[in-house]
Design brief:
The structure holds two protein chains of two kinds. Chain A is mainly beta. Chain A is globular and about 40 Å long. Helix content of chain A is about 0%, strand content about 50%. Chain B is mainly beta. Chain B is built from no helices and eleven strands. In chain B, the strands form two sheets. In chain B, strands 2, 4, 5, 6, 9, 10 and 11 form a seven-stranded mixed β-sheet that branches. Classes of the chains: A mainly beta, B mainly beta. At the A-B interface, strand 5, strand 6, strand 10 and strand 11 of A face strand 4, strand 5, strand 9 and strand 10 of B.
């Protein structure tokens, strides 16, 4: 069975602070994919990043960066210099390539205050 | 390219009724997956359709069903609605190729269903 844990249910920061959202996963598969999605109040899940289990390179995209560590089964997401527009619920998800069946974590609600 | 579209966006039904939700995938995408989001259970996978065939199914009762048409559009149906079926239903499409590697799922805006 697969499992994704986002221990932080809610985080509140002041604009321009850096913030890291934690994600820990469990799977017995050697091939799997990890994702981060953003869900603004409108409800739509917006794709942010995808990583496969054979690619542990960290990635940076503008103010966003991701740290994938297989040794600790973690795939953490950092927002640098946070902005009010970053306020949303962020979901980490796992798919084992058996099909398009994402297992989601519980989500982390990020509130960025001006 | 247009994104995933879902209709209707909002729906109010009463217990015992049935409901049909529709999803049009991104052009060229052949895989459509459905998810249910509730405050208590979070985001849960319902089922996936590819080339008009259900490929995977989540742990939901038989009241939840779906289908996919030849143009890849998909519908999901919930019969005999219960209060607990109130949720945001999200549809996602991906460019899944037969025998190919997993592709990213892109989500629609969802349908908010309220069962009274």
């Amino acid at each position: 069975a697969q499992k994704v844990t986002q221990a932080q249910t809610e985080i509140s920061v002041v604009e321009k602070e850096d913030v890291t959202l934690d994600c820990v996963y469990e799977t017995r598969d050697t091939t799997y994919y990890l994702f981060w999605y953003k869900q603004p109040p409108s409800g739509e899940l917006v794709f942010l990043i995808r990583r496969n289990s054979f690619d542990e390179q960290n990635e940076i995209s503008g103010r966003y960066s991701w740290n994938f560590q297989k040794s600790t089964s973690s795939f953490n997401f950092t927002i640098t210099a946070s902005q009010v527009v970053d306020s949303a619920v962020y979901f980490c998800a796992l798919d084992n390539n058996a099909g398009n069946m994402l297992t989601f974590g519980g989500g982390t609600r990020l509130m960025v205050k001006p | 390219k247009a994104g995933v579209t879902q209709t209707p966006r909002y729906l109010i039904k009463t217990r015992g009724q049935q409901v049909t939700l529709s999803c049009s995938p991104i052009s060229g995408h052949r895989s459509v997956s459905w998810y249910q989001q509730t405050p208590g259970q979070g985001l849960q996978f319902l089922f996936e359709y590819f080339s008009e065939t259900q490929r995977n199914k989540g742990n939901f009762p038989g009241r939840f069903s779906g289908r996919q048409f030849s143009n890849s559009r998909s519908e999901m149906n919930v019969s005999t609605l219960e209060l607990g079926d109130s949720a945001l239903y999200l549809c996602a499409s991906s460019l899944r190729l037969a025998g190919g590697l997993l592709e990213t799922q892109y989500f629609g805006p969802g349908t908010r269903l309220l069962v009274l």
